[in-house]
Specification:
13 helices, disordered C terminus, Arc Repressor Mutant, subunit A, 13% strand, Rossmann fold, alpha/beta, 374 residues, single chain
C-alpha cells in the first residue's frame, strides 16, 4: 500500500458513522477507500489533513500503522467479521502472526493468589512458545504480562491490546510495564493516536484480545466482570474458554465458577490449557481461502469483492474431517472451505442424527463407524 492509500484508510474508518463492517462494505462496493471517499458526503468526512497528520505522528513516535491488506497485519483478526481496518502497533511486528496465542484476563482488584496464578500460568505458557495476550489493565492483566516477560530468560514476548490510543499509558501506574512490553513484545490498538480511554472502548478492545488467541483464560472474575465479555466473545468466535476455579465464598471468583458450570474448561495450570490446545503446539494458522489481495487499491476494480467473502466448498464429507480426538470449530470451518453458517447447519443435522457431540467449541464423533452422511 502507498502512503496515500494508508491515508485514505485512516480517513474513511474515522469518518462519521463508518465502522469496521461498513468500511468493508464500502470497499466491496467501490473497490477502494479512495473511491468510497469520493462517493460520501464531503462535509461528513474525517479531515484529510487530520488523516495526514495521523500518519506523520505515527512516524515520529515509532508507531506502525497496519492496514488489513498488509502482510504483517495479524491474520487471526482477519477472521473477525468486524476486524479493524487500521491497527496501530508499538513494538515488535514479528509476533503479531505467531501461530500459538492464549489470552489471560481477569479482575482488576485481584487477590495476591489470583495475580500469582495468572503470572505463573503466563510464565509456563511462554516457556512453551505460547504468546500471552492481555489488556494491560490492573490486576490479572498486568500479572499475566509480567509472568510472560519473565520467561525465556526474562526475554519472553507478550501482546497488550489497549482500549485507548497505542501511545496512551493506562493505567498510569503501568508506565514501566508499558515500556517493557514495547521492548519485548507489542502494544496494539485500533484507536487514533492520543485517544483517551473510555468505558465504551473496552468491549471493542476485548474482541481483539479474544480474536488473537486460540483460547481465553479467566482468572478471578465477578459475575459483572468485563472479563466475562471477553469469554463470551471467545465462545462466539469458536475459541476455547478456560477458568480458574475459586472458593465459593470469594465474590471476585464467582464469574469463573459460573463459566465452569456452563462448560468452560477448568484450568489450574498451564498444562491444563496445553492439553486442550495441544493441536496448536505444531499448527500453523492456515490462510483464509482466496486471501485478501495485495494489489494496490487504485488498481482494484470497482466491482471487486473482498476475497475472503468467497469460498470453495470441499468435496470431503464434513464428518470425515472430524478425527476421533475431535476438531475445533474454527479449524473445521477452515478445512471444509465452507461458510460458518453452512458448517453450523450441517453439524446440527449430524448432532440430531447422533453422529457427533459438542464440548464447548470442540466437535467430537459420537460413533467411529458408518460415516456416510455429510
Amino acid at each position: 500500500m502507498t502512503e496515500q492509500d494508508r491515508i485514505d484508510w485512516i480517513q474513511l474508518i474515522n469518518t462519521e458513522n463508518i465502522g469496521a463492517v461498513s468500511f468493508a462494505n464500502y470497499l466491496k462496493k467501490y473497490g477502494s477507500a479512495a473511491e468510497a471517499l469520493k462517493a460520501l458526503p464531503q462535509e461528513k468526512l474525517f479531515s484529510r489533513k487530520e488523516a495526514e497528520y495521523e500518519l506523520e505522528k505515527a512516524q515520529k513516535l515509532g508507531i506502525k500503522i497496519l492496514c488489513r491488506f498488509d502482510s504483517t497485519y495479524p491474520e487471526a483478526l482477519t477472521y473477525l467479521h468486524d476486524a479493524p481496518p487500521v491497527l496501530y502497533v508499538k513494538g515488535r511486528l514479528d509476533i503479531l502472526n505467531h501461530p500459538n496465542m492464549v489470552s489471560i484476563v481477569g479482575a482488576r482488584n485481584a487477590s495476591i493468589n489470583g495475580r500469582k496464578t495468572a503470572s505463573r500460568i503466563a510464565f509456563d505458557l511462554t516457556q512453551n512458545d505460547i504468546v500471552v495476550v492481555s489488556g494491560m489493565a490492573r490486576g490479572i492483566d498486568s500479572a499475566a504480562h509480567k509472568g510472560a516477560m519473565y520467561a525465556k530468560n526474562q526475554q519472553g514476548p507478550t501482546i497488550a491490546v489497549l482500549g485507548c490510543g497505542v501511545d496512551v499509558i493506562y493505567p498510569k501506574e503501568n508506565a514501566d510495564l508499558y515500556e517493557q512490553i514495547c521492548a519485548q513484545g507489542a502494544i496494539i490498538s485500533e484507536f487514533l493516536i492520543g485517544t483517551e480511554p473510555q468505558s465504551t472502548y473496552f468491549p471493542r478492545r476485548n474482541r481483539l484480545v479474544a480474536g488473537l488467541s486460540a483460547g481465553t483464560l479467566v482468572v478471578e472474575a465477578s459475575l459483572n466482570s468485563g472479563s466475562l465479555i471477553t469469554a463470551k466473545l471467545a465462545l462466539e468466535q469458536g475459541k476455547e474458554v478456560f477458568a480458574v476455579p475459586c472458593s465459593p465464598v470469594e465474590g471476585r471468583g464467582a464469574g469463573c465458577n459460573k463459566l465452569i458450570r456452563e462448560g468452560a474448561n477448568l484450568a489450574e495450570s498451564a498444562e491444563d490449557i496445553l492439553e486442550v490446545l495441544r493441536f496448536t503446539r505444531t499448527r500453523v494458522i492456515k490462510p483464509a481461502e482466496q486471501k485478501i489481495c495485495t494489489t494496490p487499491l487504485d488498481k482494484v476494480q470497482k466491482s471487486a469483492d473482498i476475497p475472503m467473502q468467497k469460498s470453495t466448498p470441499s468435496s470431503e464429507p464434513l464428518i470425515n474431517l472430524i478425527s476421533p480426538e475431535g476438531i475445533e470449530m474454527d479449524e473445521l470451518i477452515r478445512q471444509s472451505k465452507q461458510s460458518a453458517q453452512e458448517v453450523l447447519m450441517k453439524l446440527t443435522e449430524l448432532e440430531l442424527d447422533g453422529l457427533i457431540m459438542r464440548k464447548g467449541s470442540l466437535i467430537l464423533p459420537a460413533i467411529k463407524k458408518n460415516r456416510k452422511r455429510q
